[in-house]
């Protein structure tokens, strides 16, 4: 029997539009992907562009596994209608659930989520992870939703079953998320 070389499924949520991200955020996203591979984590994403794509490229370069959940029903629709990439994803699951349905399926398929930058879709994925008790890592200093979560949570009834972990260094954030995963 072949032993599974991967330990955890970690979803990546972040801006699909790179024009809202600075160069430092892009570099951190790439390092994050590599670090997840080094720590034997499968990277799960929305099979999209932007920050999730950069994380998956870093993961792929470090010989990790990328699983994408597409909003499209078919590969043809993924490419032509949604204009989304197929590389560097090792497996793409075509949900046919559009963006909001895809976000839900993707988030629930992971054991943890890491947020980098982000806009409305990222907030939706964060709230799904928060409400379902996923371990959430937030890469601080990357802008967008990632830098707004602390303030948001101060005004919300904190019912989450799992912690929200913050760090500005992608390597340290991965270590902290894995420490929490090991407690499960």
List the helices and strands and how they pair.
Blueprint: E1 8-14, H1 23-38, E2 41-45, H2 50-61, E3 66-70, H3 75-80, E4 91-94, H4 98-108, E5 112-116, H5 120-131, E6 135-139, H6 149-154, E7 164-167, H7 170-182
Parallel strand pairs: 1-2, 1-5, 2-3, 3-4, 5-6, 6-7
Distance between the termini: 25 Å
CATH domain class name: Alpha Beta
Radius of gyration: 15 Å
Q: Could you give a short account of the major beta sheet?
A: 7 strands, parallel
Q: Structurally, how many domains make up the residues?
A: 1
CATH topology: Rossmann fold
Q: What is the mean predicted local confidence, pLDDT? A: 94
Outline the low-pLDDT stretches: none
- Assign the structural class, choosing from mainly alpha, mainly beta, alpha/beta, alpha+beta, or little secondary structure: alpha/beta
Question: Fraction of residues in helices?
Answer: 40-55%
CATH architecture: 3-Layer(aba) Sandwich
Order of helices and strands: EHEHEHEHEHEHEH
Choose one word for the global shape.
Answer: globular
């Amino acid at each position: 029997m072949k032993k599974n070389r991967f330990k955890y499924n970690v979803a990546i949520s972040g801006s699909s539009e790179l024009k809202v991200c600075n160069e430092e955020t892009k570099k951190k996203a790439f390092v994050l992907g590599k670090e997840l591979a080094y720590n034997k984590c499968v990277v799960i994403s929305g099979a999209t562009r932007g920050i999730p794509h950069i994380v998956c490229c870093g993961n792929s370069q470090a010989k990790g596994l990328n699983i994408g959940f597409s909003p499209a029903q078919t590969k043809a629709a993924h490419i032509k209608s949604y204009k989304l990439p197929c590389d560097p994803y090792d497996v793409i699951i075509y949900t046919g659930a559009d963006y909001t349905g895809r976000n839900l399926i993707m988030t629930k398929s992971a054991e943890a989520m890491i947020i980098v930058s982000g806009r409305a879709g990222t907030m939706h994925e964060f709230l799904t992870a928060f409400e379902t008790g996923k371990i959430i890592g937030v890469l601080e200093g990357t802008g967008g939703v990632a830098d707004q979560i602390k303030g948001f949570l101060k005004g919300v009834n904190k019912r989450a079953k799992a912690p929200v972990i913050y760090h500005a260094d992608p390597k340290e954030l991965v270590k902290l998320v894995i420490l929490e995963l090991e407690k499960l």
